[in-house]
Design brief:
299 residues, mainly beta, Methylamine Dehydrogenase, Chain H, five-stranded mixed beta sheet, four-stranded antiparallel beta sheet, 25 strands, 0% helix, globular
Length: 299
């Protein structure tokens, strides 16, 4: 089912289960998918535009770029949906058992939402403007440090979208309370710079890993960058495998890339970092946003 990986001697050991979110794109409605490498199965669990996701108290929280927050139980049945105004939700991350952080790209903010009611309380604000000038994408909370990827920590990324002005900023949330408003100037908190439209960011074994999306690559710690064939977005790392999402570039004609070829297939790379080899699993979706390795006890 999953393109012969179970019969490939280099990849037959993989038994990971992946949740994958896919935003809508044109006629593609997007959705939530489950890839089970142990049982060699593939299933679409939900139809609708899905971006970031996180698990809190055995519930799955999904942020939709249709300005909707969705919660599901362990059988992926929808518990609750709440619609918001045009905030352009991207990623979502657990803050604690009672609050999730949601990226509101349209307003340069990260909102704090109650996990029971999905009501908004406080925010982290990166600009006084309510226009998307930084294009915040993804977040990862490591202890009290929040890592944030964005197209430009310096503002007005759209003035020169071909400029490698993206970065990752790190914010200390030790004294932050989710009912307050915290103002941050992102250019004072840059920890990685000169990226090209970066997306997924995470900490793995105390080192940053992230998608340098428009450069078609992934950086995982201090190793050599993993060069791929298309727009990278979505990342999950296990003990011996890296799963990397690839999406169809939405603006391939308007924003030219620097390579001799760009693959427009949506899917997942299954990458072995030891031998630097990979297989590609296509998905029936143009866009991949996030990949989550599921704990065996979740279902």
């Amino acid at each position: 089912m999953l393109y012969g990986l179970e019969n490939d001697p280099d990849f037959e050991h993989i038994n990971t289960r992946l949740l994958i979110t896919c935003p809508s794109s044109g006629s593609d409605q997007g959705g939530l998918f489950l890839l089970d490498f142990e049982n060699n199965t593939f299933e679409k669990l939900y139809t609708g535009s899905c971006s970031g996701m996180t698990i809190v108290n055995d519930r799955l929280f999904i942020a939709s770029d249709d300005n909707e927050l969705i919660t599901m139980d362990q059988k992926f049945r929808v518990i609750q949906k709440k619609q918001y105004s045009k905030l352009d939700f991207h990623d979502i991350s657990k803050f604690d058992d009672h609050v999730v952080l949601v990226v509101e790209t349209a307003t340069n903010t990260i909102g704090c939402y109650n996990t029971e009611t999905l009501t908004r309380s406080g925010e982290i604000r990166f600009s006084a403007e309510d226009k998307d000038i930084h294009h915040i994408n993804d977040i990862w909370l490591d202890g009290h440090t929040l890592y944030v990827s964005m197209f430009s920590p310096y503002g007005k990324w759209y003035m020169n979208p071909m400029h490698k002005n993206g970065g990752i900023v790190a914010i200390d949330l030790t004294d932050f309370h989710p009912n307050q408003q915290l103002h941050i100037n992102p250019e004072n908190h840059v920890v990685v710079k000169d990226l090209y439209m970066p997306h997924t960011v995470m900490m793995h074994q105390n080192e940053l890993a992230y998608c340098d999306s428009m450069s078609f690559r992934v950086i995982a710690g201090n190793t050599k960058p993993i060069q791929l064939s298309g727009f990278t977005r979505g990342l999950a790392i296990t003990e011996n495998t890296i799963f990397i999402g690839q999406s169809r570039m939405r603006h391939v004609l308007r924003i030219p890339h620097e390579f001799s070829n760009c693959c427009l297939d949506g899917g997942i790379y299954v990458y072995d970092p030891k031998y630097r080899i990979s297989r590609f699993v296509p998905l029936p979706a143009q866009q991949v946003y996030q990949i989550l390795s599921l704990d065996q006890n979740f279902i």
